[in-house]
């Protein structure tokens, strides 16, 4: 056995892992066929089979001929993609078995990340990168007359998330695997992920995302490990044989959760963690119903009721709908995950009093918070523990991440619905609340108002359970996702709780994985960095990008940097030309705004800027030759029921159509809105961007992670003082960031004074001309009513103060133009953005979670 030590330092945390490679069969003449421990490996377990081109061709052809049952000549591109993926995954599987065996030996504390969403992005490229197989595979495919580029395009990305929150979960599990920290990600295997967006006459149309239709080589179903989850019914009390009064749940129906395992490869460290996604399946109870019902066909149809639970991802981002199916999904996946931990992951006869030493459940927003009463139910009702003992354990086993500041995004469940679906859990929540309020009453005698404010149960607008409060009360820690957000969370969202438990509140600024968001997505810049720094260590130690700083003043380096950006623009233009039939100039500034469509993110402010530039040409205020050429790129999905968001998309498309085709513009302004923004498209757009638009209303964006991706790829940010923009600006420096707009306290003051968007409009002639141009029907073939909803939204309420920040935004855009006019200085600023973005690696986020919340060591050796 050859052991290769791979070590990396993550700010004090030494991460050492082993790449164990067996050179020869074991010496023993008759090795035991059984592993020494139930979690170990036997001498017959296999090692990674593919190291050379020949071995790859052999593995690939095995998968094609015997896995797919087709000859090379008859194989389809999908056959080839699946065979390729299955050949590549063999190397990962060998590492996976070793990781699990090692973890079993160690019995170390692990992270159980509970998230209803994982926006993973494509798997093949990441697997190739993690295993270092890209060259071998490329050569092997070439020898067979196949192209890796064509095969990788065959993969449909698993879109099991809406946006930032789901993508964050994917970055975190990547980092933990790379840092050799034991982690299992738990979530839902939605049969349909986030919808596929198309435009019909500029209007968003949703299509179902049939991501599993052609088969999925990256998942491993284990129906034999299915667990049963109960719903509905009632509860009863009884006296147990020790004379104690106890409660049991008499559920009405149940479903099974089938685990589908996904590999989460660490970057070249020989480790592979697990992502376990649950799929719902009807239980035998449904079979019985079939037998009893007499109507066989109707009864089989009824099975689909159970299977609906994991059918589709809810497409609302930041605005949860209180739908019963959504609560079913939430309970379904956490009940499966807790049972999996207690019964499959922990050894037999494990003393649950020690649970906090073995696992920490991280709650990714409120979606999995029902896990708290579920653990209490398991410990008290099923394991017979005393309430206080169970509560002490539960409080140490959970930690909660809040992802929002928008009041409408704080999830609540009506008592009626919760009681109908999970009657025992509702009782437990009431009891948790009762005991908690007794404590509060003792701490603040006579303060009934505070008591009502801090109660988990609220009576308005209907009697409901505030999930964020439940998570805060039960969690060992509560964290926000950027410095400003954590501060506002403490002071504005949960002030009573932070006063009561000051030490419970902490911050962990979000991050992004450098593997996917620079090393994979920006090979040109990655090569330049590696050449300049001398090795690839920066991929797992992103602070090393600091070493680029001195090169920002080197004209030759700047020239190379510009060449990379120019090549990325060419690549993007080519992709959009084939993907969307969009024609994009390649020698202009790329000004990019990609993120979910939400009023608080203020895509309308960006649009007002574009219409302003256009109006200035039309009205002759600015000669067209004096307009700086730019391409404006948008990417955004709107929740299907979010009417005004869809109107804004339609308006962007209408403006694009008019501006792109107006000869007076002489091609100086281009608006492109490729449909179906997803991770795959983000990986193309971001490396090509010059300017990153992060223009949310201050105090509304919790963190943002798109902002980090852009800075890391050498785009300059134009942004408000919001979310992680604050930290980006502090790190890259004021000179290398275009700040504009009101600060959060000014926003508060403006609203308190009685904000009037109409008077802003009346008092700014350019703003008036811009809005009037839209209202005139110029972008809607003379139809003045077409965009009336957007106009009246802006002039009527303008909830997110787009008009109030308009003048400041235009002024900041003029600073952008002045800076871009000096290419050398712009490159210098862009290079400094890259050099100073190391902090935003999700590896750093993980170090912070480990230090401040989890206290989980890396597995060594
Ligand atoms: C990073 C990312 C997001 C989050 O973007 P924000 O600008 O932080 O809202 C959303 N969607 C996709 C596909 C992403 O890659």
TrEMBL record:
GO cellular component: cytoplasm
GO process terms (BP): glycogen catabolic process
Principal EC category: transferase
Keyword Transferase appears in the UniProt entry: yes
Entry annotated with the keyword Metal-binding: no
The EC number(s) this enzyme carries: 2.4.1.1
Modified residues annotated as N6-(pyridoxal phosphate)lysine in this record: 709
Keyword annotations from UniProtKB, A to Z: Allosteric enzyme, Carbohydrate metabolism, Glycosyltransferase, Pyridoxal phosphate, Transferase
Described purpose of this protein according to its UniProt entry: Phosphorylase is an important allosteric enzyme in carbohydrate metabolism. Enzymes from different sources differ in their regulatory mechanisms and in their natural substrates. However, all known phosphorylases share catalytic and structural properties. Allosteric enzyme that catalyzes the rate-limiting step in glycogen catabolism, the phosphorolytic cleavage of glycogen to produce glucose-1-phosphate, and plays a central role in maintaining cellular and organismal glucose homeostasis.
Protein name: Alpha-1,4 glucan phosphorylase
Protein's organism: Branchiibius hedensis
